[in-house]
Design goal:
Glyco_hydro_1_beta-glucosidase; 14% strand; GH_1_N_CS; 8-stranded parallel barrel; Glyco_hydro_1; TIM Barrel; 38% helix; 3-stranded mixed sheet; globular; alpha/beta; 13 strands; binds 4-nitrophenyl beta-D-glucopyranoside
Amino acid sequence: MSTGTGRRFPDGFLWGSATASYQIEGAAKEGGRGPSIWDTFSHTPGKTLNGDTGDVADDHYHRWQEDLGHIADLGLGAYRFSTAWPRVQPGGSGPVNREGLDFYSRLVDGLLERGVKPVLTLYHWDLPQDLEDAGGWANRDTAYRFAEYAEFMARELGDRVDTWTTLNEPWCSAYLGYASGAHAPGRADGAAALAAVHHLNLAHGLGVQAVRSVLPSAKASITLNLHVIRPVDPSSPDDLDAVRRVDALANRAFTGPLLSGAYPADLFDDTAHVTDWSFVRSGDEQIAHQPIDVLGVNYYSTALARRWDGASPRSEDDGHDDALGSPWVGADDVEFVRPEGPYTAMGWNIDPSGMTELLLRLRDEYPGQPMMITENGAAFADTVSPDGAVHDPLRIDYIARHLEAVGVAIDQGADVRGYFAWSLLDNFEWSYGYDRRFGLIRVDYDTLQRTWKDSAHWYQGVVAQNALPED
Ligand code: PNW
């Protein structure tokens, strides 16, 4: 177990923590908020563990001032949060709900008063239900509705916000939402998922244009959960080809248009039996390709893939679920295999080397692109000690080793400007409900009381020193 290597970070390195609206706010029916796809999904029996919903969550909507206090006490330089589109525009288009907007306006002011930079994400998965009823992300129109919402937010919160992030993890929105159905809206339609990929890329580009039309100097960003996928057998051409295919779906389907202005040709070829991609119109890739000031990188673990022989039972880590679909659209001949442990409570393997590998790949492929780690952290089965403390050495060890891995990449030329621990608070972990705890701060779901875990105290020290402690 490690608490740090003593490594120092560059001057001005931005230390933060992150949350997302549906995961912490609660107050699902208050303040004029409209329903989102996550309200519908979590209220559908069988979709989330224990039937958990975000109705109350951390009750952050009412306790935001207390939470700002924790942010300030941690000494964070920045706070990454998302605004709930259905709070601001309950129907996803048309009239704006002033009360919802005022909530975020007060939050931003509260951060600034405490010297904390607001890093705002416009979309962290809570799509207004009315837009889903019109086809959701499989419908091109949703991208234009998103741009209207983005422009509106930029007008209202203007230059009080440091960084404008369009989307969080469009991989999850598209493939977990529309192909595997593990996330809202819970559809299982590969062609719809690929259309969603494209409309999310388009929404990002239109969103950046919209924000900059109001705030020409706005810092624009998108957060991707890029996958580090390794071949089971690095000497097997079949396994290497399997990795190439899932790399196209998971990574290059986003980085291609967003950072290079074009989809990779192999993605079209590999999925030609699923869709003809006719939803990609001339000029769309140029729209998606807006210069961004910072690329948000979320990193948790690595994956191992190989060619599936079509006969043996698929491995448990495959993501193929008979009850659901697979997120790996058109890649039925690829199999994911469980990487070596140790694992977190999510069942995700712990491998800080993947963090360095990913950052160095991005350094090579997009030279000069500033980056930020917008999420990294771990769920463990925390317990409360009789004295009320939460001793979570595994989380400290996880974050310390991943920060070290970020530092190694920085030493090798990766331009990483900051790090946001996921998450500030235990919260609604999507389909896993409240069962999986990622917080630096524990939330008691009976009393909603917040308690700093050991990792919060440890992180406070890291932030203050701009360095890891020495074991
Ligand atoms: C990210 N997967 O979600 C999200 O941005 C957070 O809201 C979330 O709480 C955090 O990571 C921890 O899960 C993911 O299945 C959810 O590969 C699922 C996957 C990846 C990221």
